Amino acid sequence: MFITWLRHAGPAASGVDVASGGQVLAGPGVEPVRGARRINGVLAAVRGLVTHAVTTGQAPGRLMPLIYELADERDLPVQARGDDDGRMVWRMRARHRLHEPEPLVDRASDAEIVALLRACRSARDRLVVLLLARAGLRRGELCGLRRSDVHLLLDSRLLGCEVERAHVHVVRRDNPNGAWAKSRRQRWVPLDFLVVQAFDGYEFERLAVPRAGESDFLLVNLFREPVGAAMRPDAINELMSACSRRAGLRRAVRPHQLRHAFGSNLADAGSGLDEIAELLGHAAMSSSQVYLHPDPTRLRDAIDRVPSPRELAGPAR
After folding, report:
1. Alpha-carbon dihedral of residues 67, 69, 70, 75, nearest 10 degrees?
2. H runs (alpha helix) in 191-308
3. C-alpha span between 229 and 206 (Å, rounded)
4. Are strands 187-190 and 167-170 parallel, antiparallel or unpaired?
5. Which of 62, 179, 204, 217 fits 143 for a cystine, CB–CB 3.0-4.6 Å?
6. How many CB atoms are located within 10 Å of the residue 102 CB?
7. Could you give the CA distance from residue 251 to residue 248 in angstroms, rounded to a whole number?
8. Using CA atoms, how far apart are residues 47 and 92, in angstroms rounded to an integer?
9. pLDDT tens per residue across span 42-54
10. Contact 3, 39 (CB under 8 A)
11. Where, residue-wise, is CATH 1.10.443.10 in the chain?
12. Continuous segment of H or E residues that includes residue 25
């Protein structure tokens, strides 16, 4: 009953005093308001609270079998038992836990990315799309870039940087435009020729706006007030929505979907988990594993690459 309440009780029902008769009514086809992962997190917290209450004597021990399947080590092989001088050790398994479906990456397709680029009305907007889709930057990282973070030379040692070829440094700072790099760890991301060309076009466009030269931020307002001020992260969402409408897309592509496209394309191109995690700035490699589910066309290609028995046996005699 508690799981059902968690699944279907929205913000209005969550404030109802259940003890005085509050109910959750869910008819056929009602969309849940909480997912399995969120519900499992709440259940884990409740189990921890009950366990603490029992161990401190504030709740009866009979509650434990209601929320855990209890067993002891005697049903395990000798090699798997702990070293506790023959004392019985209890093992507990949660009784109530929902199956969490494997997360799917909601990525922008390559066709959507091309359509967005064609719908851009300025060199700056094209650079924004490419930095999201070809460098995998988060919108906060993108709006927090300074011009000094971008190195487009073949050799950047004159700038005090040992990284070769074109790249961009992602640095966490306190920015007045509200931009925020999620990871505390600095990283650099290589840039391909498409992004470098986009930088060239944007630089000429920016030079035509004198007030833009006063800002050290990479992306600034060029076409609306305050001209020259750093772009805010919300403006990236507005830009993606406007380009999606002009491109005639069936959905409004979000900035993070372009980042997902970058990670998925890395995996489809054969990049390793460590490479994907480093380029995306993930602190844990587990965050990058969602991109390792291959595209269906890659599964077909994998089968086609396996030689047939006839090819292995050689020509018939």
Report:
1. -170
2. 193-207, 233-247, 255-268, 273-280, 296-304
3. 12
4. antiparallel
5. 179
6. 7
7. 9
8. 11
9. 999 999 999 899 8
10. yes
11. 110-295
12. none
What residues form DSSP beta bridges with 230?
220
H/E segment holding residue 66:
helix 64-67
**What region, left, alpha or beta, does residue 43 occupy, with left being phi > 0 and alpha being psi -120 to 50 degrees?**
alpha
pTM: 0.69
Distances in Å between the Cα of 67 and the Cα atoms of 40, 44, 53, 61, 301 are 13, 10, 13, 11, 47
Residue range 110-295, CATH number: 1.10.443.10
Residue 287 per-residue DSSP state? G
Q: Tokens at residue 25, please? A: 């009514």
Residue with tokens 């805010």: 232
The gap between the terminal CA atoms of the chain, to the nearest Å, is 72
Which residues, at least 6 apart from 289, have a Cβ–Cβ distance to it below 8 Å?
273
Residue pair 277/287 in contact (Cβ under 8 Å)? The answer is: yes
SS (H, E, C) 153-183: CCECHHHCCCCECCEEEECCCCCCCCCCCCC
3-state secondary structure of 169: strand
Q: Are 201 and 194 in contact (CB under 8 A)?
A: no
Q: How far is CA 315 from CA 49, 212, 303, 307, 310, in A?
A: 71, 71, 22, 14, 8
Token pair listed for 40: 């499992």
Q: Which two tokens stand for residue 181?
A: 């790099």
- Joined together, the tokens standing for residue 28 give 């056929």
59-85 tens-digit pLDDT? 998 888 888 887 765 554 554 455 555
DSSP letter (8 states) at residue 138 = -
**How many other C-beta atoms can be found within 10 angstroms of the C-beta atom of residue 220?**
23
- CA–CA distance, 241 with 206 (Å, rounded to integer): 23
